[in-house]
């Protein structure tokens, strides 16, 4: 019997039979991992298995490639913080939805895990959450191999007046180098490069740019367009929170 | 292997698909029905035939009805301007058991879920919006589950409704519940919704 213990955040729960649940957890050392929780839809366990909840898990299976079963212990719930706030709820849905479809199974992403837990712990703090989400989405792209290089212009090598991002390479392009191609490039608001004021309109612009890569590089390649409405609802909630 | 006809085997296989039953308990149930042919088997078959012929979803609210429109929607005394939105018929029955709500219901048929690709058009949300205007509704009570999906659906519906009061059920300590056995989320919700005595 193979067994390990880890800690993680619940991404998704699906009923399995009449009493059990198939739970996807983003763990520290084992990445996105799936397992059956016996009695997972019972009145006792179900509240601990809401998306975003932090849990300790023990996974057991006879062979490594089996689905296996989880024994779970709740560490902290984030549902109340999320459910009491429209932005937090939309954010939690977007984060868990994206991770559940774009993360490869059973592959550790330690840095992204740490940033995800930090982001989830900020749920409910409306003032800082949109910027934290932007940074998280940049980290998600970086971690999965689609990070943007915003340090210098891809055409001229300069690092001043960078105003656009190439949708093809994800590299910055200066205003001068863009020339007549500017309307084919994505906007590079200063907040995306960690400069300037992180106002809501600037964050929305930055999320439109990261959104292009999330949609075209991550989601489309995985045929997982069903999570896009969740991200769109988050953008709508951020806009309303202004 | 069951001794008997193919019909019996079919019946056992169908019974085994019911919630709470497996092949073994289905065999026991079928044997019991055969033993109680007069008291159980024939009346049960008749009742199932009648239900199969008559019972369908209410065209107005999604409740189970013995016709096109359910008894609650047909009852003028329940047209008090309040609509209680529930996820499924089992929730409607739970609300009715309490005998506290005197208005009408609207059964959504599920909750929004991006991962399961359930969108507003897959639920009865457009019909709810129509009813709010056509039935002179003054208050919509969102009695959806205290889950992430339930609240996502509630916020979505609240965003779509204008000109009516939108409320949701309170959350907290259940009647007869002891704090020691509650999860931290429920305790937090209860503490936030505390009231003066």
Automatic annotation (TrEMBL), chain A:
Residues annotated as domain DNA replication/recombination mediator RecO N-terminal: 1-76
Keyword vocabulary terms for this entry: DNA damage, DNA recombination, DNA repair
A Pfam family matched in the record: RecO_C
An example Gene Ontology CC term for this record: bacterial nucleoid
Signal sequence interval, chain numbering: none
GO biological process, one term: double-strand break repair
Protein task: Involved in DNA repair and RecF pathway recombination.
Family named by the database record: Belongs to the RecO family.
NCBIfam families associated with the record: reco
HAMAP family noted in UniProt: RecO
Protein's recorded name: DNA repair protein RecO
Biological source species: Loktanella salsilacus
From TrEMBL, chain B:
Domain Toprim: 81-174
GO annotation, biological process: DNA recombination; DNA repair
UniProt xrefs under InterPro entries: DNA_Rcmb_RecR (IPR000093), Rcmb_RecR (IPR023627), Rcmb_RecR_Znf (IPR015967), TOPRIM_dom (IPR006171), TOPRIM_RecR (IPR034137)
CDD domains in the record: TOPRIM_recR (cd01025)
Pfam families: RecR_C, RecR_HhH, RecR_ZnF, Toprim_4
Signal peptide: none
UniProt keywords, alphabetically: DNA damage, DNA recombination, DNA repair, Metal-binding, Zinc, Zinc-finger
GO molecular function: DNA binding; zinc ion binding
Zinc finger (C4-type): 58-73
Domain of life: Bacteria
Family: Belongs to the RecR family.
Function: May play a role in DNA repair. It seems to be involved in an RecBC-independent recombinational process of DNA repair. It may act with RecF and RecO.
Listed name of the protein: Recombination protein RecR
Annotated organism of origin: Loktanella salsilacus
Lineage: Bacteria, Pseudomonadati, Pseudomonadota, Alphaproteobacteria, Rhodobacterales
């Amino acid at each position: 019997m193979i067994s390990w213990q880890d800690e993680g955040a619940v991404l998704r729960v699906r009923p399995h039979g009449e009493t059990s649940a198939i739970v996807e957890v983003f763990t520290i050392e084992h990445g996105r991992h799936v397992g059956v929780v016996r009695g997972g839809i019972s009145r006792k366990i179900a509240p601990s298995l809401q998306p975003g909840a932090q849990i300790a898990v023990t996974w057991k299976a006879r062979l490594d490639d089996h689905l296996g079963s989880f024994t779970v212990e709740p560490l902290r719930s984030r549902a109340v913080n999320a459910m009491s706030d429209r932005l937090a709820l939309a954010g939690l849905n977007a984060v868990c939805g994206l991770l559940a479809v774009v993360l490869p199974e059973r592959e550790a992403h330690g840095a992204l895990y740490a940033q995800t837990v930090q982001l989830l712990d900020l749920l409910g703090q409306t003032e800082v959450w949109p910027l934290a989400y932007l940074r998280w989405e940049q980290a998600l792209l970086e971690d999965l191999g689609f990070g943007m290089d915003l340090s210098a212009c891809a055409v001229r090598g300069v690092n001043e007046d960078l105003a656009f991002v190439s949708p093809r390479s994800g590299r910055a392009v200066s205003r001068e180098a863009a020339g007549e191609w500017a309307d084919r490039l994505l906007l590079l608001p200063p907040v995306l490069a960690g400069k300037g004021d992180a106002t809501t309109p600037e964050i929305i612009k930055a999320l439109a740019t990261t959104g292009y890569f999330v949609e075209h590089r991550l989601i489309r390649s995985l045929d997982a367009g069903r999570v896009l409405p969740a991200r769109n609802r988050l953008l709508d909630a951020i806009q309303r929170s202004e | 292997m069951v001794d008997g006809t193919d019909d019996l085997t079919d019946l056992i296989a169908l019974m085994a698909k019911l919630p709470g039953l497996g092949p073994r308990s289905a065999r026991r149930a079928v044997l019991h029905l055969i033993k109680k042919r007069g008291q159980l088997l024939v009346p049960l078959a008749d009742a199932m035939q009648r239900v199969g012929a008559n019972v369908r979803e209410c065209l107005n609210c999604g409740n189970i009805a013995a016709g096109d429109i359910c008894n609650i929607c047909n009852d003028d005394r329940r047209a008090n301007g309040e609509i209680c939105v529930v996820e499924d018929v089992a929730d409607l029955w739970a609300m009715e058991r309490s005998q506290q709500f005197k208005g009408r219901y609207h059964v959504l048929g599920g909750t929004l879920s991006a991962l399961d690709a359930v969108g507003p058009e897959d639920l009865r949300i457009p019909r709810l919006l129509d009813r709010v205007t056509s039935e002179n509704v003054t208050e919509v009570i969102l009695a959806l589950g205290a889950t992430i999906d339930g609240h996502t659906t509630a916020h979505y519906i609240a965003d779509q409704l204008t000109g009516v009061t939108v409320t949701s059920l309170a959350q907290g300590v259940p009647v007869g519940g002891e704090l020691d056995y509650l999860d931290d989320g429920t305790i937090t919700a209860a503490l936030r919704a505390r009231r003066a005595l």
